[in-house]
Q: What sequence folds into this?
């Protein structure tokens, strides 16, 4: 069996001592960025192949989770027990090869799923920009309370500013007391030749208005007598 194994695995077979050796196993499609190579270590027992050999899985390159290690060891035991009475190392090495390929397929699938999830999250964030926030009664009430509070604060500030402005604004009397020339301010808008009009000259007393009314009534009475 040893000669056959050395012929089948010329580069992968490594002799460690009397009846002890290991066979390096790599996947068919090795991942250059995250490679994985295992080694099936075997030691013949005195009654092999009627009894199981001593065996273990070693990590030559990369990493192997405890769950994968446990799965491979259980699969090896099942295959070895089914092969009792016959040489079984090639069967065991072939099984390790299958497991390594499955592990690499799992890793590739996980990477693809992670990449797809990353793309999905990015698309979800991009689409969220156009959807806005869903309006609910609770969110509306929260917005309304905030809006009313901000509006009240704004109105309060405007009232305070208006009050300060009115408080600091001088009255008409104060303006005249501060600048006597304001009393003659309209005179500067008069052109040469304009006449200043004293409105008091056109004021009529009540007696004058009554006298004119009596004269008018007398005229109408005169017309009546002539008829």
A:
């Amino acid at each position: 069996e040893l000669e056959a194994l050395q012929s089948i695995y010329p580069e992968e077979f490594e002799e460690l001592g009397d009846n002890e050796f290991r066979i390096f196993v790599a996947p068919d499609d090795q991942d250059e960025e995250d490679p994985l190579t295992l080694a099936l270590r075997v030691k013949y027992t005195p009654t092999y192949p009627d009894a199981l050999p001593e065996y273990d899985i070693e990590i030559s390159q990369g990493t192997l989770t405890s769950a994968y290690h446990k799965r491979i060891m259980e699969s090896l035991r099942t295959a070895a027990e089914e092969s009792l009475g016959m040489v079984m190392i090639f069967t065991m090495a072939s099984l390790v090869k299958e497991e390594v390929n499955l592990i690499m397929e799992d890793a590739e699938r996980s990477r693809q799923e992670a990449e797809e999830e990353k793309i999905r999250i990015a698309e979800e964030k991009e689409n969220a920009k156009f959807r806005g926030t869903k309006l609910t009664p609770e969110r509306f009430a929260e917005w309304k309370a905030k809006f009313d509070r901000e509006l009240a604060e704004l109105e309060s500030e405007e009232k305070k500013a208006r009050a300060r402005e009115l408080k600091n604004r001088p009255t008409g009397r104060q303006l005249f007391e501060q600048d006597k020339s304001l009393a003659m301010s309209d005179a500067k808008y008069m052109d040469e030749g304009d006449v200043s009009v004293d409105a008091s000259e056109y004021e009529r007393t009540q007696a004058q208005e009554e006298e004119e009314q009596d004269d008018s009534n007398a005229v109408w009475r005169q017309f009546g007598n002539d008829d």
